[in-house]
Each structure stands twice: as structure tokens, then as C-alpha cells.
Amino acid sequence: LAAMADASGHRRHPTIQEQDDMTANTQRKYRADYQPPAYLIDDVALDFDIRDTGTRVRGQYQVRRNPDAAGAAALQLDGRDMQLHSVAIDGRALGADEYELGEHALVIAAPPSQFSLTIENEIDPEHNLALEGLYRSGDILCTQCEATGFSRITYFPDRPDVMSRYTTRIEADADQYPVLLANGNCVESGDAGAGRHYAVFEDPFAKPCYLFALVAGDLGMIRDSYTTASGREVDLRLYTEHGNEDQCDHAMASLKQAMAWDEDTYGLEYDLDSYVTVAVGSFNMGAMENKGLNVFNTACIFARADTATDGDFALVRDVVAHEYFHNYTGNRVTCRDWFQLSLKEGLTVYREHQFAIDQGSPGVTRIGQVRTIREVQFPEDGGPRAHPVRPESYVEMNNFYTITVYEKGAEVIRMIAQMAGRDAFLRAVRHYLDKHDGQAVTIEDFVVAMEESTGLDLDQFRRWYAQAGTPRLTLTTEFDQNQLRVRLTQSTPATPDQSEKQPFDIPVALAMFDAQGLPVGEPQVLRLNQAEQQWQFDGFDAQPTISALRGFTAPVKLDYPQSDAELARLMAFDSDPVSRWDAAQALYLNTLVADARARGADQPPAAAPQALFDAIESLLATPPDDRALLAEMLTLPSETRIGEQFDATDVFAVNGARRALKQEIARRFTGLFETLRDAHAASGPYVFDVAESGRRRVFALALDYLAAIDAPGIRDHALAVYNDADNMTDRMAALGALRDLTGDARTRAMTDFAERWADYPLVMDKWLRLQASTRRDDAIAQVRALLEDARFDFTNPNRVRALLGGFARGNGEAFHHADGQGYQLLADEILRLDRLNPQLAAALAGLLAPWRRYASPQGTAMREQLTRLAASDLSANTGEIVAAGLA
Ligand code: PHE
Ligand code: ZN
């Protein structure tokens, strides 16, 4: 089933009967169609009776007519994939003719204006592989309700603007499920007879149903406590399957860091007596902020020196903080409807970013954020799935948990914070939270609160929420008679649903340097809010070197052709680390783009200029103190970033150009890289901190350059590193270096790894990823073999992402092979997966959708697979992505 957009723009509300005729929930929903709920539910009492054969759910709701709602008075309860047993109003069971039951809803035509509704139904968590609603992950039963998973648990208005206080009773076998958890405080527990027990939980805060959570299982636990600034003692517990407890300490420490940071920075204190986290192995996303009971993917909790890399440690720290920050930005103030998702996600990602910057190296942390925008968000914004930070319509909400809503949303907040200044921004967020505490609100409400508190005029700025696409800026200068004129223009390319774009309000930071690298004047922030603007600066002795869009003040593409000499100068002395790195990237890009273009046109490769090698030489001679910054500055732009410079990417030309430059740099500086490697080798036990992880990054980078030219002795050296390392970061550095080098050293390291970590599925994901991304002629056959391997599990999203994501994203040469077999493999697996886990299948389909961004034969071969998918019976999730790709 393909998703259909109504081209005329005419919208209507299908009746239940029509909805059923459409077999799946494939009609498009529009932001402009929002209607307040006809009924509100103040109190919810849920009773779960967990049995091997299925789970009985009994819900009792105190319902009343919404005084703010006009129009029809029918009560619409969403629900799917479950068996209804009974419906009663004020204790009287309704006959089947007193309500209408469809495949996705139960409607009671004219209920009283205030009543108690009781619903009994049965669900089947054991066969729920979509990982939405109540499902099994190993020994654990858990729930996932965002966005609309609650309607797989019981019939309920599954929309975030219905907020209720929940009481949850869980009853289950005491041996199989010794731990029973739900949101809030446990107010009662005990024996239920026949080997069963029960527990009752009360959550004092009204919440939307997407924040509901329940967990039952035989779980191990670590425990700690935190005392808030005002003296509340919070019980912190982290549950996981037995045997994993020793991988959870870093997550617990991170939680306490996050709690302290939110108090210090925003004055926000935790509001319940317990904060419980459960780590499960099968989870579609990273983690979920359910009130007082977070459920996490183990990949975002587990971190032990020998099993997790520095990158994993940082990920765990940041995701733990992100979910904690949601307690205010998301839970206390939530979204009115799902079009407002960035209200909670953009703001929470921004808070997470600031937290990460405060914990790590500020410059390098920011560089990582900029890279994500450029390498992941810009491609989304320039492809078939481009949508505004606040989307106008969707078919399947799960398809809109995107990099645009999350990360571009955070950049938009960052621009507001910059315009307001730090303290004014923090005050404004407090104002927003105070004003709307306990409410479900909109992005517009947030912007209004920002304006009220800061005094900023955000009228034009609002377009950042409404218009999709990445603005393109050009900067040109004229220098004459001690005067510098800077001209900026902006335009934004059309996106699928918006052909005309209005100018954005864009902060562009600028600094100037003289030939000695000394700053000329103060750095400025220009505010570009028209299609074209000009600024004048006076009093120069000589033409300065300009550092533009310093620190990436706005999520835009800037065309400002600078000479290699200017870039080398900025790379050497720009005072902002992000800009130093950016100058290095631009310098590399100049060469890489020219060479990729030449290769694509079957011309002789373009050589790199001497200025580039001179810049690297002086960087290595006087490296920045921040070692991670050195590593970033020596890392070439990714294939994706290079490809972004072309209308249609020639994957092989881009890969060829990047590999050639990397090898050329490695050849010229072999001795220096060896010195760098030896100077940055481990000298003591593993510690996760800024200095040590920076050192390890430089070490890994040096190994990687040396491996790129198979430098003499590098194989044995890498194998020795692998064998001697006390931590996963260095082990992965060694394996990464060996990955594409055939021979004994590689085989021995890979074999050892697979044996050593056989019982650690998350660690084996690293192995799967390495296998899938290895350059080899039979790469596709290898991936097909791994799909059948016992270490792979098609029902686990982490395994699927490691193997198929590792292949499609990490093995350009095989995935994009001209024979189209890589695309075919991916499409085969999408079809297989779509029957089990549509959300994950849709995410994989997103890799084929931007076929127009690839030169042919690749582009056409990708489209062929999309067409093949479109001809199949697809879920609403995957159907929407495929349709967007073919539109
Ligand atoms: N709300 C979660 C977060 O951003 C992400 C999520 C979305 C998890 C949907 C599960 C399902 O932290
Ligand atoms: Zn979030």
C-alpha cells in the first residue's frame, strides 16, 4: 500500500468504515486539521494480568466532555491488534450495537458528558515483533508507547493532549517476573496466590499516554541515590538482565552528572522519589523518557572499558542525560500533537548538546554536532524526505523521528540562545516551563514564551520551523581603499512540498585576521534576513582574512571560495577551534571535489596543492593541545560530505578521490605518523576523560593512515595493539586498521574477537559491522552468509542495524556496485523485515529513497529496487518512505 497525498489539498475525516476499507492506517494527517479532543480523561486505572498465554488488560477511565471542544460528541478510542472483551459505562456493559468497533478504533457515538468507562481486552506480547506496545525482549516484558503504541495496549484516545493521572496494577508469576515496575511510586505489593504476586503504582503527575510504561521480568539491578538541591532524596535504580550489572556504572554516574547539571544550569530539580531505568536488548530507538521509568536500548546503557569504546561511553552519557532532561522538556510540558515533536526533541537535544559541551572538549564536541548536521541532516533536507522542523503532514508518525526534527530543531534553538545571550535564554526556558507546566503545547507557544521573556522579535525567525530545505549562502567581498565590503545572499532550493521559500533570519558570525594571524577588530554576528545584504567595514591596512559562519552559527551551506593559502592560515591560527577545523575541511574539500570531478569525467586525477601538505606539516609541528582537535583536523571529509558538493554523486569517483588523498598524505608523512602513533600509545590503565580519549583518537588516526598504505610493519603492530589493549577503544582502532588488509594478522585478530565476545551481543555488533564493511570482492556473499549466521538475529534491531546498516553505510563500494546487487540485497531484507518490524524496515528503505542524489547507473538501479518495493504489499511505514522516494 502506498501512501497517498491528496493533491487537491482537500482534507476530510474518513468515517470508521472508510478507515477500515483502507486496510491499514495509510491516510495522511495534517497539522492544520488539529481539533481538541472531544473528551478528557482525568484518571486512569490500569490492571495488567500477565499470563503465558497472553495479557489481560482492564482499564477504568474517568471521562468528561472537554469544555473547549466544539462539534461532534462521539468518543473516539484508538486501538489495534487486540481482542476486545467488554465495554462498560458506569458499570453497565454495553451491547455490541452501542459502539462501533473498527480495525483502528472503537467509537461510542453519544456517551454521557461525564462517566466512568471500563474496557477489558487481551494482548499478545509474545508475538509482538514490532516492538511497540507491550512486548518481550529476552526475559523482560516491557512497553514502548511513543508515538502511538499505547493503542496497542488498550482502547484509549492515543494523543498527547489527553493527560491523565495513572494508577497501574500488575500481576504476574512471581518466579518468572520477580520485578514489576510502572511509572511513579509503588504504593502496594504482595502475594496474589497460586505462585503469583502483584504491585500497584501511582504516578502523581498527569501525563499523556505515550509516557506510560510497564516492565516485568527477572532482573539484576544497581542502585544509587541523589540528593537534590532542595534536599529530596531520590532513589536511583538501573535494571538489566542478570549478569550485565557491571556494565551499568557509567550510565548511573552519567545520570547523577545530568541531574546536577540541570540544577546548576536551569535550576531544575527532579520531582519524584525514584528514578528507574531499565535496559532492554530489543528496542527500536535509543531510549524512551517514560515518566520516572525510562526504558533504554542496552546500546545506550552498557559501557565497560573492555566492551565499549570512548564513543560508546560518550553516547551513553549523552542519551542518559537526554532522557533525564525530558522530565521537564517533554514530560512536565509536553506536545499538543505530534506535529509539535520538535518542541520536546529539539529543545532536549539542545540541552543535551550543552551538557555534552560542558563535560567534554567544547570545540570537538561542537565539531561532532556540526558534522552530524552536514553529513546526515543536509542530505535529508536535500532529498525526497525533506520536511520542516515542524512537519505539515504525515502518514506514519514513526517516520518523523528524524534528524531534522531532532538536530536541526536543536540548531534552531541554538540560534535563539545565541541571539538572546546565555542568561536571558536560560531565564526564557524557565519562563516557558513555568507558564506551561502540566500542559500540552505547541512550538508556537514556545516561541511566544521566548519572545515574552527575551524581548526578541522572532517573527521572521519562525520560518525556521515552517520551511524545509537548507539555505545556501554566498559570500563575496570587495576590498578597496582600506574598506571591506561583505555581501551575503541567501536562497533555499525547493523541497518536495514547498516550491517557494521566503528568506530566513540567519545569524552569520564573522571574524577577521591579518597576515600574522592577529585578530582585526571584534568578531561580529551579521544578521542576514533578506535575499541579499551588504556590510561595510573600514580602517584596514590590508585585506583581512575572513573566518565566516564561525562556529557554525546557522545550519546553512556557505559558498565562500577562499584560496588554499587563506584556508591554511585560518587552519593555523583561527582562535575558534570549530573554525580551525572547518578551514581544514574546506582545504581538503577543494582538492577532493576537484579530483572527484576529474575522475567522474574520466580525466587524469587532480593533484593536491603543496599548500595542503604544508598546512598538515605545520599542524603536526605545532599541534593544538586538545588532541581530539588534532585528530579532527587530520580527518578528511567523509564520502557523504564530499558527495554533498555534487548534484548527483559518483560514488566511485568520490571514494577514489578520498582514498588517493589519504594515501598521499600517509606516504608523505609516514615517519611523522609513526612518531605520532608511538607518542600517543597507551601508557596506563583505561580512563574515560577528555585528555585520554583525545590521546586515543590521535593514536587510532595514526594507525589508520599507516594502514591506508599498508606501511611496513603496520599489520604486526596493529595485531600487537589488539592483543595488548586493556580497552575496546584501542582494540577497535587496531581492528579498524586491519579491516581491509588481508592476511594472517587480520584473521587472528578477528577470530580472537569473535571467540572472546561471543556472549556479548552488543560487542558482536561491532564484529558484524566490521565484517559487513570490509572491502572485498565477495562482500555481498559475505553479508548474505552473515544473515544466516547464528550470531545474527533478524528480530533484534541492533543486529539489523549493525549488519545491514554497516553494509549500506559502511561499504560504499559493495553497496553501490554498478550491478545493483547491493541494492537488491537491501530490498530483499526490507521486504522480509517489513512483516515483523515496519518501523525498522522503513528506516532501511530511507537508504534507497534518495536515488536522485546518485549518478547513474547507481541512481537508476536504486530506483528499480524502490519500484520493486512499491509493487509489494508494504506497511504504512515503509509505504510512506517508498512513495516519497518515487514521487
Ligand atoms: N522520545 C525518545 C527520545 O528522543 C525517542 C523515541 C521515540 C523512542 C519513539 C521510542 C519511540 O528520547
Ligand atoms: Zn528525546
Report on this structure.
The protein has 887 residues and is an alpha+beta fold. The strands form eight sheets. Strands 6-5-9-3-2-12-15-14 form an eight-stranded mixed β-sheet, with no helix packed on it. It has a five-stranded mixed β-sheet with strand order 17-18-19-21-20, with helices on one face. The radius of gyration is 28 Å and the shape is globular. It starts with 15 loop residues before the first helix and ends with a helix. The model is unreliable at 1-24 (pLDDT under 50). Zinc ion (ZN) is lined by residues 322, 326, 345, 348. Residues 322, 326, 345, 348 line the site of zinc ion.
Characterize this entry briefly.
The chain is 40% helix and 21% strand. It contains 28 helices and 31 strands.
Annotate the secondary structure layout:
Elements (H helix, E strand, L loop, with lengths): L15 H6 L7 E2 L8 E13 L2 E12 L9 E4 L4 E7 L2 E2 L6 E2 L3 E4 L5 E10 L9 E5 L2 E5 L18 E11 L5 E4 L2 E9 L2 E13 L5 E4 L1 E9 L5 E9 L7 H18 L7 E7 L6 E2 L4 E5 L12 H16 L8 E2 L5 H19 L2 H20 L11 E2 L8 H18 L1 H14 L4 E2 L1 H12 L8 H4 L5 E9 L2 E9 L14 E8 L10 E5 L3 E7 L6 E4 L8 E3 L4 H10 L3 H24 L9 H12 L5 H7 L5 H5 L7 H18 L1 H10 L10 H19 L5 H11 L3 H11 L5 H13 L4 H13 L5 H9 L9 H14 L1 H4 L5 H14 L3 H8 L12 H13 L5 H11 L1
Helix pairs in contact: 2-3, 3-4, 4-5, 4-6, 5-6, 6-7, 7-8, 10-11, 10-12, 11-15, 13-17, 16-17, 17-19, 18-19, 18-20, 21-22, 21-23, 25-26, 25-27, 26-28, 27-28
The structure holds phenylalanine (PHE) and zinc ion.
Largest beta sheet: strand ordering: 6-5-9-3-2-12-15-14
Task: Give the overall silhouette.
Answer: globular
Cofactors, ions and other ligands in the entry: phenylalanine, zinc ion
Indicate the mean pLDDT. 96
Alpha-beta classification: alpha+beta
Number of helices: 28
The biggest sheet amounts to: 8 strands, mixed
Please state the CA-atom Rg, rounded to the nearest Å: 28 Å
Percent helix, as a range, is 25-40%
The total of beta strands comes to 31
**Subunit organisation of the chains:** single chain
**Residue share in β-strands:** 15-25%
What is the terminal separation in angstroms?
14 Å
Identify low-pLDDT runs.
1-24
Organism: Salinisphaera aquimarina
Domain Peptidase M1 alanyl aminopeptidase Ig-like fold: 469-560
Protein name: Aminopeptidase N
Keywords: Aminopeptidase, Hydrolase, Metal-binding, Metalloprotease, Protease, Zinc
